[in-house]
Fold:
Amino acid sequence: MTLERTRAAIERGIGEGLHFGAQLAVAWKGEVLTEEAVGQNAPFEPLETDHMMLWLSACKPVAAVAVGLLMERGQMDLDRPVADWIPDFAMKNKGGITVRHLLTHTAGFRGATLGWVPRAWEEAIGVLCATKPEPHWVPGEQAGYHVDSAWYMLGELVRVISGRHYMDFVREEIFLPLGMDSCWIGMSEAVYDSLEDRVAAMYDTSGDSPEISEALCRRSSVTACRPGGSGRGTAGDFLKFYRAMLEMIRGTPGILTPETARYLVQPHRVGMMDRTFRHTMDWGLGFMLQSDHYAPGEVPYQFGSFASRSAFGHCGNQSTAAFCDPELELCAVVLCNGMPGEEAHQARMRSILDALYADLASDE
Structure:
C-alpha cells in the first residue's frame, strides 16, 4: 500500500507553510505499512526517519502506563488521595484530589501551568503543591484539560513510589522493553551530547515568517523532564507503543497484563464538558478517547473524522497525533515540525488522518 492520499496531505501542508516536514508511521492488521519522513528538518537538511521529533502532549499516555505498572505491583490505588504519598500536595485544600482525578483531567488545578521555562524538578513540584485549586471545583465532577500540572504530579508519584526519577522509570520500564530505543521524556546531558544531531527542530509557523521555536528546541528544554510534554523520539519507535497496547488489549501479555491495558483505555470520563477545550470529550485513564460524535468536525484533537468509537491515544499541541483504532487494527503516528495555530492545525491533522482512513478503505 502506498498511502498516496496521506502523503499528499502532508506534502500539501508543506506547500502551505504549515510545517517543513513530518514523520509518518502506520501499522495495519499486524503489518507495518510505512515508517517515513517527508520534507525538511532545517534549510538544506532533509528530515530523516531517525530524527527524534518532539511529541508534546502526545507523551501523556506514557504516564498512564507507568501508573498501570505500579497498580499491577500493588503499589498504586487510583482512588487514594495524592497527598497520601506526597503530603505537601494537601496544601490549599487539595487533599481530596486522587490519582484518578489527575489521569482524567478532573482535578481542578489547571492554572498551575509551568510552561517551557526549565525548572529544577523539586521547584516544579513545590510550585504545584503550593497552588490553590480552582474556585468551586469539585474534583471528579468537573473536567478541564490540565496541560502539565497533573502530569508533573503523576511523575512525582512515580518517583516517590518507585524510587526512580520519572525519566529513568519510563525509559527503563516502558521504552527499552518495547524496543523504543530512540525515545526519552527528558534525557541526560551526556545522551544529548551524543545525539544532538538527531534532535529534530520545531517551528512556529503561525505568523508571516516561520521561526524556530527556541523554547522547545534549546538544550535545556530537550534535557528537561516534563511528564506531560517533553517526550521525544522517532515516529517509528513511537508506533511500537501503540502496537504493544493493541496486542495487550487483544489478550497478549506484554509490559502490562491485558486486563490492565484494557482498563486504561476504557471510558472513565464520559459526556463531560471539557472547560479547557470547550467541547464534550470522553477520556480513559491518561488516554484521549475518540469523541468526534459529540460535534462532528468540531471537537479538537481527534483521530480524524472516520476513527471508530474505540480509538484511543493522544495528540500534541498543534503538531502531533498518535493513536490506536482497535476496531480497524490500526496504529498510527504523525509528527509535524510546524505549529501553525490551532485552527490551521486542526484542519491539517484532520485532513491527514482522514486521508489515511481513505487510503486504508481503498485497499479493502
